[in-house]
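Work Package 3 (structural annotation) set out to generate three-dimensional models for the target panel prioritized at the project kickoff. During this period the team completed the workflow that converts sequence records into discrete structure tokens, so that structures can be stored uniformly alongside our sequence database. As a representative example, we reproduce one entry of 278 residues exactly as it appears in the project archive.
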Amino acid sequence: MRTWFITGASRGLGRAFALAALERGDRVAAAARTIARQDFDDRFGDRVLALPLDVTDRDAVFAAVDTAAAHFGGLDIVVNNAGIMSSGMVEEFTEAEARAQLDVNLFGAMWVCQAVMPHLRAQGSGHIVQVSSIAALGGFPSTGLYSASKFALEGMSEALAMEAGAFGVKVSIVQPGGYWTDLYTSMTATAPKPEYGPLRAELEKQWAEGSIDSEPRLAAEALLKLVDSDDPPLRLLLGSMVYDLAFDISRRRMDTWSAWEQVSRAAEHAVPAPGGDS
């Protein structure tokens, strides 16, 4: 029996992750802005601990992690799933809107990582799972700040993986594609500038074709396989669409790098430090 700490556990992927862990007999500290014990089936008994938590409050995050670790006698798997999405062109974002996006998706996850590392480091084991997004594969019109938050999350997580690895703690980045959650229905939007009207019309035309997303349960099944692995990957793509897109974007980047190789290599030529002895 392992103990999980999951943020954003009251709905969407987070709830699917929590239920999958509980149904296999594990224990879960389920954290979310609004959550209560009665949100979970009575059959799970004392294997579930509901923790109301705003991940942007660093002190509250540390307190919640300490509470969960003390309640269950330790932590094994930490899932940073809490996230929000703000839609809008980069030029349209106010400072407050931009900071709110990063406060949850980047800093919220960072506070959780800082809070759990002393516990995981002391026991010499554990697995931190960062729920990223298809938006971390590339920037797209109207999701620039969301992509920025996920790009930043992944950069931080790559460094954390090497730092935590020295203590036997694993880190994995999960990049999901489309799932039927309320991420899009609950997202906020910037005040639109009329200059972007034609681009928005084109985007709406593309979205009108609709999308076929998947059940969160499938993502939860993949997550269980990830945390059960003795050698989990740093990155895991979830879904055929995001899998194909990842390869397409990577190939296009490599083609561009190759086309500009001569310019790139010509921009570097080692010389002695300025002001050194002649």
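The longest helix spans residues 95-123.
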